[in-house]
Each structure stands twice: as C-alpha cells, then as structure tokens.
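Below is how a single chain appears once it has passed through the pipeline. First comes the sequence as given, then the structure the pipeline wrote out for it. We keep one example in the README because the format questions we get most often are answered faster by looking than by reading.
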Amino acid sequence: MTDTPLVITAAICGAEVTKDQCPAVPYSADELAAEAERCFAEGARVIHLHVRRPDGTPTQDRETFRAAIDAILARVPEAIIQPSTGGAVGMTVEERTAPLDLDPVFCSLTTGSCNFGNEVFVNTFPVVEAIAGKARAHGTRVEIEVFDAGFVDNALALVKRGVLEPPLHFDFVLGVPGAMTGTEDRLAFLLSTIPAGSTWTVAGIGRFELPLARASIARGGHVRVGLEDNVFVSRGVQAKGSWELVRLVAAMAADAGRPIATPAEARSLLRLRDG
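Resulting structure:
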C-alpha cells in the first residue's frame, strides 16, 4: 500500500448521459459549478469538464466553456479544471480544441481510435498531433486517455517524435462498449506498458467504476468517478450526483489508509503549472 495522496477526478457531465437518464446530470454553468463545489467538498481536486447547450446536446463552444469555468472557479478557486478535447463523436479538431483558447492548466488527449458503443471515436495521428500541438502552445498539460492497449503505444510513439513530452500522465478509461473491458487484469497489463515515472488514473465505466477505483487506490494510482462514466452508486440505485461517487471513493481511501490530496499536492503530483 502506498501513502501517496490520492487525486480524485470528478467527471461531472460528459457528452452522452442526459437528464432523462439521470436527473442529476448538470447542463448549465450554474449547475456545473454547484456540482463541482459539492465534489470538491467530498475530496475531488480535478473537475473533468464537458459542457452542454440548454437542451443538453454537447458542445465545445469556447464561450460556453468560459462561462462554466468562471462559475466553477467563483465557487471553488482551488479546483483544477480539465476541459475535454474529446468532445463528442463526430466533432472536428477545431471544435474539440476550442476550450484550449482559454489556456487551461490541464486537458484530456485521446491517443487512438476505437469503437464507442455503436459509433467510432476517431483519433488519427494527425488529429492527435493537432490537439497536442495546440495544448503545448497554450502551456496546457495533457492527460493521455487510454481506451485500449494500443493507445499507450501511440502515446510513446508521439514522445519519440517530440509531440509529447514525458513524464506522461495516463487515464485508463476501461469498460467502454467496443474498447478494452474494465477488469483488474486489464489494468495490471496496462500498468506494465507505461514508462517508469508516469502517473496514472483509472476511470471505470458503468459497473466497473467502483471496483476499479478500489484497485487503483490499492496499486498507488488515482481515481476518476462521476456521472459521465456511471450513474449508479450500487446495483439499481442511482447516484444523487457525482459528489456521491466521490464520497464513496474517499471512504475507500480512508479504509485503505490513503490520504486525499490537498489542492497543492494534486497540482504537484500531476505536474501542473500554477494558474
């Protein structure tokens, strides 16, 4: 067991889950800010951020991101906000990278393509390089989103080509229908493929979320939970918000004797710039 402080990421919105499926999913800037504040109070330090139009459809509009980020920081100045550059399936690179114009300290970067339910999430090397290049230009650290094993190899290839700079931070997003499943043996395999000195987070999808959170805590990794990935706290019991899932992870960490990172510790562990 490690005593490294645990960084919890709250994925509070996503691009897929609607209020019809889970009424607690936030859409507006005020809803996102209120949910981020609750998650931070429960121990989340990173807010993985998607934004929506009023009708709930996903958007990467820069000004919609700006409004959400401003609202969150007004309530939680110490929060680390991580805009998504994945957006939603079918968006262009220009759409996906719009929030980078706001100079965030952190963003997601998916380094491969995969089936995503009944769709295909396309991330060719030119797409990945374009997103990574814009992130670097804005001084934004990337989190490598890994939906399948080859995504790690792709990230390491991009390091060799000078597109990405180590040490890398990975987020293993496991259990997406069409990509790698969310069992602990898959996590163990992925950990065997990343370079020494890397940091990593696990995001289990659906029923995989909480078991993988426990496994990550035990193995010294970090954890992402939230309504983007899973809307249940237990079988058939819907979460009242992402904060409730964060609370469960914080309790797991306490049971394991692992401290929750302070905001300053989270920034240091993730190697983020100030501001």
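The chain has one domain: 8-269.

See the next section for the split statistics.
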